[in-house]
């Protein structure tokens, strides 16, 4: 995929930003559609609960949909299937035996655990397996943000339960596993894992995660409710590196500007966004969009209804008023104090209109000096001609 010239590793640098901590900023001017990072996962694990009654329809390594007549099931543990011999080769003897033992000895205590606890068990098995297979990669995992929970914290009890269960069942490892290590690993998974979603379908407005992956470099991106970059993956369409994450710029940003992703669909309303960020990432968002929306009174219309009005009734006026504006002022970190809705332009231009999609649009990678006028949705993959077009 064309990234517009420069190599991704020269496009970003790590910086400390007051109130935001470690951040990734543009090391040079970045262009709309430019690929600024492509990264393979450090580890991947299935999002299906361990004791789920439904069998995963995906390869347990690359997570493509399995063909009904051409896949290979592990005959030793009988718990996972693969789409090819090369994918099956990733299934190590330790992981296979651990899965088999855990399934055979599944106590009522484990079967009574919520589904997310069972998925956490899958992550820990993958992490322990990584420690044995690639100690250097395991150290990278340990270096990521996220610290273990304190006593009394509900997550501390979960870590204690899973540590006791897995240490009693799994074969010995060449690394020492402690309750503290288990707790730290779960914390790093919580704040650094990216979900690979099931294939998009217009009829399915409740898409589930098929797998989770840890992408160390991608985890450096901070959140913004009006991002200037977004992530793409091509799990079912790419021939090589299908589980890679690709980060692409939504619009131009100057050198020194922080590059941010949204950790969830940008159409979520203010209260839902704040609740999600606090529960999953333990912080309150104070981005420019949140500053504006926090001032809306509880008695006013729901934000989604307000945005729908602006997108439908006033779309022509909004587009007309915005043509001369700098996109960075409405989509990045600047707020137009004269407007109650400085982010409306983002919704009109960069939100996918397909039913039940809620994806974000970004230009295709530029092949010339000019930005592409074709926008691609990072959820459904549909293409749209940019009605505004041109460089900002």
UniProtKB/TrEMBL annotation:
Q: Organism classification, top ranks?
A: Eukaryota, Viridiplantae, Streptophyta, Embryophyta, Tracheophyta
- Official protein name in the record: SET domain
PROSITE patterns from the UniProt entry: SET
Native organism: Arabidopsis suecica
InterPro entries membership: ASHR2-like, SET_dom
Pfam families according to UniProt: SET
Which ranges carry the SET domain?
A: 10-264
